[in-house]
Amino acid sequence: GSGKSTSLAALIDYRNRNASGHIITIEDPVEFIHRHKKSIVNQREVGVDTRSFHAALKNTLRQAPDVILIGEIR
Predict the structure, then answer these.
(1) How far apart are CA 36 and CA 50, in angstroms?
(2) How far is residue 40's CA from residue 64's CA, in Å, rounded to a whole number?
């Protein structure tokens, strides 16, 4: 690949190590597991934790996270 997933994981990890807050990822499938560091990280997998990207994003916006990562949408 071209490194898109690795780049996104690095950005999330940087934010997680350097700032407090709430990070939510929506992916299909989850590619990197992020542990809580300075931020709380909730990872949702489409088809496992939620039925669709649309449903996950709608629910995520109600939680007012500081960062939302949306994985590749096909």
Answers:
(1) 21
(2) 13
As a whole number of angstroms, the distance between CA 19 and CA 37 comes to 9
**The whole model's pTM is what?**
0.92
Q: pLDDT tens-digit profile of 2-31?
A: 899 999 999 999 999 999 999 999 999 999
What is the 3-state composition of the chain as percent helix, strand, coil, each rounded to the nearest 5? 35, 25, 40
Helix (H) or strand (E) holding 58: helix 53-62
Instruction: Name the 3-class secondary structure at 61.
Output: helix
Tell me the domain boundaries of the chain: 4-70
Q: For residue 57, what is the DSSP state?
A: H
**Three-class secondary structure of residue 17 per DSSP:** helix
The neighbour count for residue 2, using CB atoms within 10 Å, is 6
